[in-house]
Write a structure and sequence with these properties.
alpha/beta; Alpha-Beta Plaits; TIM Barrel; eight-stranded parallel beta sheet; 13 helices; 14 strands; binds phosphoenolpyruvate; binds manganese (II) ion
Amino acid sequence: MRRKVQNPPKREGSSVFEVAKEVYKVPREGKMIIMKSDATKEQIAQVVKEIKKCGLRADVSRGEFRTIIGLVGDESKISFAHFATLPGVKEARAVEVSYKLISKEYRKLLEGESERMVVKVGNVEIGGDEPIFIAGPCAVESKEQLLRIAEESKQAGADILRGGIFKPRSSVHSFQGLGSIGWKEAEQALAWLREAGERFELATVTEVRGETQVDLAAEYADILQIGARNMYNQDLLTKVARKNKPILFKRHFGAGIEEFLSLAEYIAAEGNKNIILCERGILPIGKGKNFTRYTLDLAAVPAIQKETFLPIIVDPSHGSGRRDLIFNMSCAAIAAGANGVMIEVHYNPEEALVDAQQAITLDELKEIIDVCQKINRLVAPKRNEES
Ligand code: PEP
Ligand code: MN
């Protein structure tokens, strides 16, 4: 029996599809309001009130000399010209990016602020003149394992200790991290991370894989990591951002640079600009995957630095998937202008429960840190000249 074929829906000019396309097109332009240098607190508050009345939110950035207000939300709902007439407003301006809150242009308008933002975590400055080094196991396996790696990472010159407790894994049959065993195990592993950080004076970072883990992880870790697979998870980004802790934000392996920055904007839109971007490799093409796990997109580093004031680091471990390439790719990352690298290490790499093939020894880490610092001394003056 022949099945009855239904007519496809009409798609002429006024169809619902055309309307939706028009209404929901991605905004390529962001609006911001520049206050006069002598604008009063009341005038700023009045602008914020008007923005809220339109159902939008306001991102208020106070520079040394002036205040800039970015609109957060669907800007098509407001009459922009109206804002230019409000008392205390110098100018209402549009910028041609979909990630204005983290754009260089936004920062430049805040006269007196340096073009680059430094994210501070305890004594560690990410985005300053010196590159930072994040090291640790892919996954936290035991207290002994973590404390030993922390101590040796510190001796090698690392600034920040990493350790996955909630691991994103492709196979449900592999080790998912201690946090996936149960809440008690998660809390215990997080406590080890904090203890290792305190004992060896290292800041700490761990990944939050889902919304339910955010509150707990935020109690223990200094920096919360959003892994590549979660780059698009808006609800998780919003929840993590509201913790007001620095966020290590990894690029999805299929994401373009504009998408990566547009999603980072979700974090900034919650008023949290302590974002450390991380390039960790994009999908390799064709037979490339027989040689490297991902393709480390190092051109993205200076390209992103031209767009945003946020610091960006590189993860050569996931970016290559091969321990024999980590030294070269770390050097290349710093030469490309990265503000640091994140490397998976283990005292017995072969033994690592997760990502053993890309783990390096602590001696290798030390060598990388020494050489990267030298490379940075060569490239940093030129970088400052250009930015
Ligand atoms: C990690 O850093 O532990 C990790 C899983 O990396 P990615 O999200 O980049 O795959
Ligand atoms: Mn890993």
